[in-house]
Amino acid sequence: MKTVVCPGSFDPITNGHLDIIQRASGIFDRVIVLVAVNQEKKCFFTPQERVEMIRRVAEEAGLENVRVDSDDGLLVNYIQRVGACAIVKGLRAVSDFEYEFQMSLTNHKLLPECETIFFTTSSRNMYLSSSIVRQVGGLGGDITQFVPPCVYERIHQKLTAGKGSK
Would you call 92 a catalytic residue per the annotation? Predict the structure, then answer.
């Protein structure tokens, strides 16, 4: 069974992320979407909230071979623990490539049997990122076209709750 890990912060998961996950799930036996926890990074959603949203998105998309997990350790250690053969990453632009290429080389140096597979984004999602979604949503813009409906609901709830407490 070929297992791959699709890591990221997913804060929140966007339609661009979902596209990469769907495409990977059509190629590999099992895809683990890994919410990578960085304690130094201030996030909009907790790791558990992100895991729950991704699980719901995967379920609603009918992705039966997708599992969701979170981890705050070194990615290659997680790869070894779950027996994955590769890392799947999405690339939007040249700027993504520079960073992801560096990470790929580092991961390969730490775990030579682990490959990184890059999926280029669909043209309809080239501009899309979690930070854009947070920024546009936080300023009251319509983000319904950027995220799955269940994610929009969670973002809307969180933004509405935040305004009520000011």
Answer: yes
Listed residue (39, 33, 4, 28) closest to 17, CA to CA: 33
Catalytic residue, from 92, 108, 122, 129: name it. Answer: 92
pTM: 0.93
- Token pair of 117 as six digits: 């597979």
Catalytic residue check, 17: yes
Known catalytic membership, residue 2: no
Which one from 17, 30, 56, 134 is the annotated catalytic residue?
A: 17
| Catalytically annotated residue among 41, 42, 109, 163 | 41
Alpha carbon 23 to chain centroid distance?
Answer: 13
What tens-digit pLDDT sequence spans the chain (166 residues)?
Answer: 899 999 999 999 999 999 999 999 999 999 999 999 987 888 999 999 999 999 999 999 999 999 999 999 999 999 999 999 999 999 988 778 999 999 999 999 999 999 999 999 988 988 899 999 999 999 999 999 999 999 999 998 988 886 654 4
Q: Are 87 and 107 in contact (CB under 8 A)?
A: yes
| Active-site option among 9, 25, 104, 130 | 130
Tell me the CATH number for domain 3-127: 3.40.50.620
